[in-house]
Amino acid sequence: MIDFYSRAGQVIRRWPTGQARTWVTSFLQEAAQSKDVIAVIALGSAVRPDVPSEDVDLLVLHTGGARLKWRAPIEVDLRGYDMSKLEHDLGLGADLATWGIMYGVALYDEDGVWERIVDRWRGRLRLPDPDVAEKRAAKALSQLRVLEEAGDDAAANELMVSYLTHLARAALSRAGVFPASRPELVDQLRSIHQGDLADSLEAALMARLRLASETTAV
User: Fold this and answer.
1) Which of 77, 72, 74, 70 is nearest to 37 (CA)?
2) 3-class DSSP state for residue 139?
3) CA quadruple 203, 177, 112, 92: dihedral sign
4) How far apart are alpha carbons 45 and 104 in whole angstroms?
């Protein structure tokens, strides 16, 4: 039997809370017993070296038509992916699928399905579509203006971070650089001489931390 507590501890470099680790361990034990779950992949900043992280991102590869029954705590971002769509999406450069291949680490992959997919795709991934990222940025910006007018600083900051993140990913893809996790984008932007965008994203991330600490203090 797999020791999921130890496995999660090896893969996840930083846990936002003890509750997150407890929940992830319990989830993995249940997922391993589900006939619908093929693999569980950890990705995002929590599995990346030397970067801060605020949550744990999990990608659940499942059989077609399955619905995830689990409700994760707020610090765990649980996203399902239909196995029947995965390789088609990889061929299109879909961001979540490609990030999983580039930066994901398997927490559960008993039959080696995910490992074989990674072996097939790692050397021929397309960069995430910058046009898609720019459309997402435009949508975030329109929502941001509404919140700024309403005076909701915390919500506006979240959208500002989202807006700048999408712009950063678009700029990196256009420069032929695969975007890494959000905390790594600032340095990546500077490496392609996008200093103004890097400064803006860094300032928004710092404001996010400040607003979060003020909320916690209250």
Assistant:
1) 70
2) helix
3) positive
4) 10
Domain with 95 in it: 4-124
179 and 207 share a domain? yes
How far, in Å, CA of 144 to CA of 136, rounded? 12
My answer on whether 30 and 113 are in the same domain is: yes
Place of tokens 């020791």: 3
106 and 142 in a single domain? The answer is: no
What token pair was written down for 103?
A: 């930066």
Alpha helices in the chain (DSSP H): 4-11, 18-31, 83-92, 95-103, 113-121, 130-150, 153-174, 182-191, 195-217
Residue 215, Cα to own-chain centre: how many angstroms?
24
- Residue 60 tokens read as 């659940």
> What pTM did the predictor assign?
0.87
Tens of pLDDT, residue by residue over 8-58, are 999 999 999 999 999 999 999 999 999 999 999 999 999 998 888 889 999
Total domains in the fold of the chain: 2
**Taking Cα atoms as reference points, which of 79, 12, 72 lies closest to residue 39?**
79
Helix (H, G, I), strand (E, B), or coil: what is residue 45?
helix
